[in-house]
Each structure stands twice: as structure tokens, then as C-alpha cells.
Amino acid sequence: MLELILAVCGVLLGSAICSGTETALLSLPLLRVRQLVQMKRPGAQTLYAIRSQINRPIATIVILNNIFNIVGSILIGSLATTILGDTWLGIFSAFLTFLIIVFGEILPKTLGERYAEPIAS
To answer: Which of 17, 69, 73, 86 is least surrounded by CB atoms within 10 angstroms?
Structure first.
């Protein structure tokens, strides 16, 4: 059972990091990033390099997020079947879907937008 809980937490954490980072990078205007570079803020140069060529980093983040969500759900489903049995798989899958939507997508994106500058930096 501990293995299942750790797998769910790992998938949620990975998905949350990807979603929050994606939103933070896209929420921060390039003009603000240039201001941070002029103010010599730590990490501003790297952030400018990422933000000025955003297509590749965003594609990587989206791919990683999908890997966490899809492959993680498959592995967790397999673990859940082994631990809980076939009877509970549907209920567990619905619960996992809810957790991923709320804690892997909505909450991290809200926080990523609200705290875009410190997260992106």
C-alpha cells in the first residue's frame, strides 16, 4: 500500500512541477524579463535565454507532463489492481483523475501564474 501512495505522490509532484513551471514561464512577459536582466537579478540571464526562445522549453515541459500523467497513471493502475483488486480499479481511477486535475494541474497553474517571477527565476 505504501508503494501505491508513493507512486501517486510522485506522479502528482511531477505533474505539478511541470504545470506550474509552464504557467510561470508563459505568464512572465518578455519585457519584465528584460527588466530583471537590467536589474542583474540572479538567474535573469538564463530566464531571458529560455523566455526569448520559448518553443523548445515549453514542448519539453508539456512532453514531461504528459509522461507523468499518462505513464504514471498506467503504472499506478497496475499497482492499484495488484493491491486493491479489479473491483476497486474504476473507483481508484476516478479518484486519481480528480487528484491529477486538482493537484497536478489547476492548483499548480494558479500558483505558477500568481508567483510567476520567483518560480520562473
So the answer is: 86
